[in-house]
Amino acid sequence: MSKEVGRPSLLDEELLERAEHYMIEGYKEIENIVPSVAGLSCYLGVSKSTIYEWAKDTPENKLIPLRVKFSDTLDAIQAKQEMLLINGGLSQVFSGTITKLMLANHGYSDKVQTDVTSSDGSMTPKGLDDFYADYGKKEPSLNPVLRDFWTTRARNKILYGGRMSGKSWDAAGMAIQLAARYKLRFLCVRQIQNRLMNQCMPC
Fold it and tell me: Which of 82, 88, 143 shows the shortest CA–CA distance to 74?
């Protein structure tokens, strides 16, 4: 049976035994799906800050045998939580979204990183300034007049001007250069009109 959380208590043998029991099967007695620090807090009747204080890795705590054992018990609770989350997630017993969020506290991530470097540097990601060094070696190249536009950092960029100025060509070329070096997605949308007069914005 859990107790109401009250004022911080001194760690004693009884509380340590209750913490160990919570880790083994006590969490089920208070209907916790997995053991947790919050559940242990309710089970022992102390605040989470007190639990963390007891388990803190400090020179003072290392001299107190009860706190060393309590810290080990807390580590075991975290390890058991991790194991149950993995098993529950793989068997689809637990919600995938909640499982992912909780496993993030154990260092798990669904982020995928790709190493695109190479020994000769040919596949090493480059900055925008380096792109123009490549443009001169290949035809067709991008409009050098727009170099500052592309190499200046900005959250949003807008190209505008008259027809046949190379805006679409430059935007497509920059997208190709970026895609060749990084894992990116692009959405290209173009609005056209049937009549030339409808394609011009009134001044």
Answer: 82
**Residue 6 one-letter amino acid:** G
Q: What is the pTM of this model?
A: 0.51
Q: Decide: 5 and 47 in contact? Cβ < 8 Å.
A: yes
10-16 average pLDDT score? 91
Average pLDDT, the chain: 78
Tell me if the bond preceding 140 is cis, omega within 30° of 0.
yes
Q: CA 141, CA 139: separation in Å to the nearest integer?
A: 5
Structure tokens belonging to residue 190: 């173009």
Whether the predicted pLDDT of 25 surpasses 70? yes
What is the identity of the amino acid at 11?
L
